[in-house]
Write a structure and sequence with these properties.
Blueprint lengths: L17 H21 L3 H37 L7 H21 L16 H12 L3 H20 L4 H30 L2 H25 L12 H15 L3 H13 L3 H30 L16 H4 L10 H14 L2 H18 L8 H6 L1 H11 L2 H5 L9 H6 L4 H31 L4 H28 L15 H28 L6 H21 L1 H7 L1 H9 L6
Helix pairs in contact: 2-5, 2-20, 3-5, 3-6, 3-9, 3-13, 5-6, 6-9, 6-10, 7-13, 9-10, 12-18, 13-15, 13-18, 15-18, 19-20, 19-21, 20-21
């Protein structure tokens, strides 16, 4: 045994220690081997293609605004309007945080590093890996491109200040990165508590409804200003807002760049110092959350059992009064949903988008068309909130999918119970969106209401049929407690979004010609025929669920039972 000694490694809590470097190398090797091995399957190759397509889409989406921000920064600096430089910097910060908050509702972007808890990973290494995985988030990619564009624009206008501009924008980019990570981490923690979810949901709905009521006053077309405002009052408010923004991080970055251009070095250094202090404060708040996660914090709401309770006392009254596997699956998934902050976040996002688009629907050449057909357009957003649940209805089962295979209950009954819950959720979303549309635009005409109902009767079974097939063909394990990026979710998300677009396009192709000729009622029989066809397809897919799951039993167990890896 004397020749088997292992050389001692440093176990100091240092992110650059020999042990930490070996851990990074081992993690990179595991990730690379997992990628290469996944390419041996059609599912893995499709996932790689989906990642490439998504990256191209993000880059294409970011290039246009990046060029605009760079040109805008160059123009305002070269023409001497230095005060206006704060505008692109504030837009950068606001959009960075907006995309960061919106991404979890679509696919998630927080890295899940809980699988590293089984290894002796130091806290510093945990934080470093968390930030490195966060660099590939969509909000970070877009934000960094926009930051570089602003830096290039200012640097070309004032070459002598290029070095300080780059340093200031680098500190601002670090602040935005840490702020987006911190906000998501704390939202995730707050949404893990049922009482917090109820309070946040109530406040959100109240604010959305109040804002919709105030939209007509805000967008009035008269010559006067809304709410009795005067131009003097607006000028005073602008002056106060300008003074406030100067002490906030984006304003500090803008002031530092302006002071460096004016050769006021001491003031510029002071502004960057305050910006660095804000960055450090955000890092401390993020560190509190990461410290708790690195120690194995459990966000589950399950109460701790103090002792063995009698069976008769531990039973709870069922949520549904009727019995059977369909009702059991309905109740189980509903309880999962009510305890899942990320899922509730997804369901609330369409209401935000309807509110935002509702405020701008009265402008543009097609404003009258958008206002008249606001109800069917809102129903499209109702389906978007359910996309993750529809296209991956087995994802929440995880390794528990094996119990379904051992149970005498047919899988089609399980899927039917999930579809029943999805139908109930869609009805709730549709009711809330209809209320927002009625408050903002008034009751729709009978023809528009009939057309909307006909499209819904077609879209619901079409979505269920496509979602059931996709849930079996391309499943992935869904994390119900974290807004994380699940492995295998990107390909599923692209196909599901393409399905949503196709269903909406079919409705537009049917309704558009009849609406153009002033006969919207003519679209109703066509939509009812399509609804009948979609219902038949959904029933056939549902009848073949057991056959499809039997053919992919091993793949389902592997995809849903494995521990998700970040990336």
């Amino acid at each position: 045994m004397a020749g088997l000694e292992v050389p001692a490694l440093s176990v100091r809590p240092d992110i650059a220690s020999p042990l930490a470097r070996r851990q990074y190398a081992a993690l990179a090797w595991v990730q690379s081997r997992a990628l290469l091995n996944s390419l041996r399957t059609r599912r893995g190759s499709f996932e790689l293609g989906a990642h490439i397509v998504s990256w191209l889409l993000f880059v294409a989406f970011a290039i246009g605004p990046a060029a605009g921000m760079g040109i805008g920064a160059y123009v305002v600096v070269s023409e001497g309007h230095l005060r206006a430089l704060a505008i692109p910097i504030w837009v950068l910060t606001a959009m960075w945080q907006f995309f960061s908050a919106l991404a979890p509702a679509l696919a998630g972007q927080n890295p899940d590093l809980t699988h590293l808890l089984r290894f002796p990973v130091s806290f510093g290494s945990w934080v470093l890996l968390f930030l490195l995985y966060g660099l590939i988030a969509p909000s970070t990619i877009i934000g960094l491109l926009w930051t570089i564009a602003i830096g290039i624009g200012v640097g070309l206008a004032v070459p002598q200040a290029a070095a300080w501009v780059a340093f200031t924008l680098a500190v601002l980019a670090l602040f935005n990165l840490l702020l987006s990570r911190m906000i998501l981490a704390w939202i995730e923690r707050w949404m893990a508590r049922r009482r917090s979810r109820e309070i946040v949901t109530g406040i959100f709905l109240f604010v959305a409804l109040c804002a919709q009521i105030l939209n007509p006053a805000f967008h009035q077309r008269g010559h006067g200003l809304p709410w009795g405002l005067t131009r003097t009052g607006i000028a005073l408010a602008e002056h106060r807002l300008w003074q406030i923004q100067r002490v906030l991080p984006p304003g500090l970055a803008a002031q530092s760049i302006v002071q460096s251009i004016r050769h006021q070095g001491a003031a510029s250094v002071a502004d960057v110092g305050w910006l660095a202090g804000c960055t450090f404060g955000v890092a401390m708040l993020l560190g509190i959350r990461l410290r708790a996660e690195s120690r194995g914090e459990n966000l589950s709401e399950a109460p701790r059992r103090s002792g063995a309770a009698p069976i008769a006392q531990s039973r709870r009254r069922p949520l549904l009064d009727f019995s059977g596997p369909v009702a059991a699956v309905f109740e189980k998934d509903l309880r999962y949903l009510l305890r899942s902050g990320p899922m509730l976040y997804n369901l609330a996002s369409p209401l935000v988008m309807v509110f935002l688009l509702g405020g701008t629907a009265g402008y543009g050449r097609l404003s009258a068309v958008r206002a008249e057909y606001a109800l069917p357009l809102g129903m499209i957003w109702a389906f978007l909130g359910l996309t993750r649940l529809l296209s991956n209805n087995l994802g929440g089962e995880g390794a528990g999918i094996q119990f379904y295979f051992l149970s005498p209950t047919p899988l089609r009954s399980v899927v039917l119970g999930k579809n029943a819950l999805h139908l109930a959720l869609f009805c709730l979303e549709a009711l809330l969106i209809t209320s927002l549309v009625v408050i903002r635009f008034g009751p729709p005409s009978p023809a528009v209401a009939a057309v909307t109902l006909g499209w819904i009767l077609f879209a619901v079974p079409a979505n269920f049929a496509a979602g059931n097939a996709l849930s079996i063909a391309m499943p992935y394990r869904m994390n119900m407690t974290r807004m994380s990026r699940e492995q295998g979710a990107l390909g599923n998300a692209l196909v599901s979004m393409l399905t949503q677009f196709s269903i909406a396009a079919v409705g537009a192709l049917v309704i558009g010609p009849f609406a153009a000729f002033g006969q919207p009622w003519g679209a109703v029989p066509v939509l009812l025929g399509l609804a009948t066809l979609a219902g038949i397809v959904w029933w056939r897919v549902l009848a073949g669920v057991d056959r499809m799951t039997a053919a992919r039993m091993e793949a389902l167990t592997r995809d849903l039972g494995k521990v998700a890896q970040p990336g």
